[in-house]
Amino acid sequence: MRYAAIGDSFTEGVGDELPDGSFLGWADRVAAGLAAARGEPVGYANLAIRGRLLEPIVTGQLEAALSLTPAPTVLTLNGGGNDMLRPRADLRRLVALTAAAVRRCADAGVRLVLLSGADPSDRLPFGRAMRQRGEALTSGIAELAAANGLTFVDVFHDAEIRAPGYWSPDRLHLNAAGHRRVACLVLRALGEPAAEWTLRAGASDARRLRVELRYYRQHVLPWVGRRLRGRSSGDGRNGKHLDWTPVPP
């Protein structure tokens, strides 16, 4: 089996940090689960880059993944989260871009698995608007998957992952526990064995003024500054596995 993953920070694994500063993530964990289930190495490529909008994901990253030799056996796609953070997000266009990726994978004979991102809106500024956009996009992608007989992993509506213990301090990205939860959902959707991953104890979600001020200073204001400068956290970055990397069982 050869598994390729494309997307943004969610698929890159941001928040699931290793001691050396690199990121693991749910896609890496899925590759390991596939290898373990088969008892043999699995080829793994991850072309996801943090900050990417959906269009460069379904054009540049998708074409790079499909051009790998040999071609992927299965490919996961998630995107649109960064688009929804823009003031004028066109959700119909996001669904249309995903539909184009569906056709491209069908033409290439590659199995495509679609994912919705986890819902971060409970603890984000303007969270209500974000949830409305996420609901609309998730609904559109789910309908697209059903119409084309594709596997769809609905992380957005997973109630367990809404708990604060699954999220990084920036409240936008999952932490290691969150990525483990997503990997479990993906492997089960693929029909692979995966133990249920839940937190043993609920984490506190205290919202004190000092905590909120620190959060805005460390996470929100830098994000706003990048938007004003027209920059992205992924500028100058490449995917972490641009060619097939063997994942042992």
Q: Element order, helices and strands?
A: EHHEHEHHEHEHHE
- The first-level CATH class is given as Alpha Beta
Number of domains as seen in the coordinates:
1
> Could you say which structural class the secondary elements and strand pairing correspond to?
alpha/beta
Q: Please tell me what the overall shape is.
A: globular
Helix content: 40-55%
- Strand proportion, as a percent range, falls in 5-15%
Q: Would you give the CATH topology?
A: Rossmann fold
Overall pLDDT confidence: 90
Helical segment tally?
Answer: 8
Order of strands across the main sheet:
5-4-3-1-2-6
| Alpha carbon gyration radius | 17 Å
Give the CA-CA distance, first to last residue: 12 Å
Unreliable segments (pLDDT under 50, ≥5 consecutive)? none
- Relevant CATH superfamily: SGNH hydrolase
The major pleated sheet works out as: 6 strands, mixed
Question: Oligomerization state of this entry?
Answer: single chain
Number of strands: 6
CATH architecture: 3-Layer(aba) Sandwich
Structure in words:
With 249 residues, the protein is an alpha/beta fold. It has a single domain (2-204), classed as 3-Layer(aba) Sandwich (Rossmann fold). The protein is 43% helix and 12% strand. The protein contains eight helices and six strands. It has helices at 9-12, 26-38, 54-66, 81-84, 91-108, 127-147, 176-189, 209-229; strands spanning 2-6, 42-46, 74-77, 111-116, 151-154, 241-247. Strands 5-4-3-1-2-6 form a six-stranded mixed sheet, with helices on both faces. The longest helix has 21 residues, at 127-147. The radius of gyration is 17 Å and the shape is globular. The two termini are 12 Å apart. The mean pLDDT is 90.
